[in-house]
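Design job #97: recover the sequence.
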């Protein structure tokens, strides 16, 4: 199975289980994320939700081009992009806080997925970046919208997206994207990160989360994320994108 779902002592875990594909998101993973969200959204006993990837090489390398590269027009690409934006919006507005356990590379759509979470716990060997520009497209699952909505320094965030480059954990901390950087065992790092938070009743965390999401909902975040998907779909049908994808696939072989 390409994903796993576990709930243990009020913590819900979603793990992308495609390490051979660098935990890239395909339709099966999308379905898994939707199932995960359906399971926890209305469960008042869940304190935190954790999203991660299997292994230690990749948190998530974005969309699986073997599934998605066949799209040629904006009309072809938009349903997948819109679905991704809907999933990330649901993650961002979950009633409980969410943690991206970035145990390896988080690039492209993987960087968007981590951005949708409230906290990003980043391994010292991990790298992350909005590298979609190398394929002549923008972020398309609403991740850039979320990035700017979370009120970091505008100029740095604009460079973070538009340079289409990979960033070290130290740079991610400086940007404010990484919450913490950890060394060593991932499970130990997560336990240490959660320990002080679990001393506070889950209703307090949920109340503060609702304050943040209330603002986002009032400001039309969902519509803005769907507009990002639409803009990406227009770029998707460009010759520049198709040529860049072909170069990437040829190089991968």
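Job complete. Output follows.
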């Amino acid at each position: 199975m390409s994903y796993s779902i576990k709930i243990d002592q009020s913590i819900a875990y979603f793990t992308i289980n495609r390490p051979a594909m660098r935990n890239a998101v395909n339709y099966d993973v999308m379905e898994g994320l939707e199932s995960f969200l359906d399971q926890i959204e209305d469960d008042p006993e869940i304190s935190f939700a954790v999203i991660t990837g299997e292994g230690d090489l990749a948190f998530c390398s974005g969309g699986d081009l073997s599934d998605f590269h066949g799209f040629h027009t904006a009309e072809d690409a938009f349903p997948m992009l819109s679905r991704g934006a809907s999933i990330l919006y649901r993650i961002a507005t979950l009633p409980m806080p969410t943690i991206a356990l970035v145990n390896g590379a988080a690039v492209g759509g993987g960087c968007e997925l981590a951005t949708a979470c409230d906290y990003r716990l980043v391994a010292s060997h991990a790298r992350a970046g909005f590298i979609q520009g190398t394929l002549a497209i923008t972020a398309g699952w609403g991740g850039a919208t979320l990035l700017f909505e979370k009120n970091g320094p505008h100029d740095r965030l604009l460079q973070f997206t538009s340079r289409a480059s990979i960033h070290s954990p130290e740079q991610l901390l400086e940007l404010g994207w990484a919450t913490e950087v950890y060394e060593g065992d991932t499970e130990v790092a997560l336990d240490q990160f959660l320990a002080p938070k679990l001393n506070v009743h889950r209703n307090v965390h949920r109340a503060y989360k609702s304050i943040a999401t209330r603002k986002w909902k009032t400001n039309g975040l969902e519509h803005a994320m769907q507009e990002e998907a639409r803009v990406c779909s227009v770029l998707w049908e460009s010759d520049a994108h198709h040529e860049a994808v072909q170069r990437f696939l040829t190089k991968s072989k």
